[in-house]
Design brief:
Elements (H helix, E strand, L loop, with lengths): L8 H29 L2 H24 L11 H6 L12 H20 L10
Length: 122
């Protein structure tokens, strides 16, 4: 038990892993958009909008039955569909890893041609 909260170390670790995978996926989305556009604000905006849209899809599916079928497409649902703590290692975590790998594959060719070694605005 961690801090006598009734949460085992394994359950806390699985919740931390879910949050980490979710954060990495949206961080890599920002990297890919930034690599493709070269614009920091666009990268942040697209990533934030995607995270907000994923949450709306997830929350709408919890409240409105007609949106339930959309939930599996939300990375937030993939991370938390059995609860953020105590769900153990979920197979849906592989979708988060696959999405992250795809975003890296999109970003790498664009980063190859960018000069990221020089300071800007100095």
């Amino acid at each position: 038990m961690v801090f006598d909260l009734g949460i085992s170390l394994a359950d806390a670790a699985s919740g931390a892993l879910a949050m980490t995978l979710l954060g990495v996926e949206y961080g890599l989305l920002a990297l890919a958009v930034g690599a493709l556009t070269g614009r920091r604000t666009t990268a942040i905006g697209v990533s934030a909008a995607a995270a907000a849209a994923a949450y709306v899809v997830y929350a709408a599916g919890l409240i409105l039955p007609r949106f339930e079928s959309w939930q599996p497409y939300s990375p937030i649902h993939q991370a938390f569909h059995d609860g953020p703590l105590g769900a153990g290692l979920q197979l849906s975590y592989l979708w988060l890893l696959a999405g992250s790998a795809l975003l890296v594959a999109i970003a790498l060719p664009s980063l190859d041609g960018r000069d990221i070694s020089t300071a800007h605005g100095g």
